[in-house]
Amino acid sequence: MAYSETKVVIGGLAHIPIIIGFFYLIRRQYSFGAMLRTGKNALSNKVTAPAKKSSPAPAKAFPAPAKASPAPAKASPAPPKVAASKKPHADVPVNTYKPKAPFTGTVTENYSALKEGAIGKVQHITFDLSGGDPEFKYVEGQSCGILAAGEDAKGKPHRPRLYSIASTRYGDNFEGNTLSLCVRQLQYEKDGETINGVCSTYLCNLSPGDKVKISGPVGKEMLLPDEEDSNIIMLATGTGIAPMRAYLRRMFEPTEIEKHQWNFKGKAWLFMGAPKTANLLYDDDFEHYKSKFPDNLRYTKAISREQKNIKGGRMYIQDRVLEHAEEIFNMIENPKTHIYLCGLKGMEPGIDEAMTTAAAAKGLDWSELRPKLRKAGRWHAETY
User: Fold this and answer.
1) Does the N-terminal or the C-terminal CB of the chain have fewer CB atoms within 10 Å?
2) All structural domains of the chain
């Protein structure tokens, strides 16, 4: 198709406004891009830094420059990361005093925790922790190390032995400056000779006023949950009652409740194993708590030399677990229920066997359930 010279000229003139508009658009875009990058207006050379933060429109219209700035991308996810990484009981004191630089406590009392006719020797020992810098602070469920006086067979200082703390953070005197232990003197026969445990014998023979080297506190495995409506199942034998005593005093001792304002509203169930009634440690205290708080505390005893299980054999703590299996697992189904196990290592197989049988009756596999409870922070075991 042919065009006259006049038409061609007119047509060319008609495109001039379009070309001018195109170049204006490029310049305008460059101006906004430069402003986002430098905070300056490329057209006026004036500083317009506030536009970087307060003007949302450019950020939406030009996502590329916004991505080029690393600061906002790093700052925005920081709060959730901090919250997620905070571990439970992160503020609980640990190793305030190490074995090489222990705290020196003073014995304030040392008396038998057994009744007449009991087997063995078990002492309740309290230490004054006053004057520490820093202060020796602990919470229920922790342990401490005791360094026995003297030297071992090689002429070296004795290694610290760990003992579960039997008092609450406020101590038996409710003043926050004492720590109590429940110690059984270790004795065993070797080649016809009675051997006494070094540290346990040292502790049991202490007198008020004696100085003792104490390290710690240590451990977070046996700590109580913070929630006041948690349910607590406790399985203990012998001096494994020590942390349980601390828990129950925290829950039910009137002065403790007044001191810490932690009002337990859940269910607590203590299973206690002992060879004889006279060996039931702190039994009078627990019976008193049960009478005062019957809706919150159950106390079940397994006295091996005085009671019979369903098969006619000696009554052990695992037999009591089987007797109450359905109730126990009904409680375990509640995510607010925690289980605490403390005592001689020999009690673990029996408890596991009882739990396996009880779980099977509910169509559950205990070998799969227990690791899940531990991972969820609901299964707490400390045996020795």
Assistant:
1) N
2) 5-85 (no CATH), 103-218 (2.40.30.10), 231-383 (3.40.50.80)
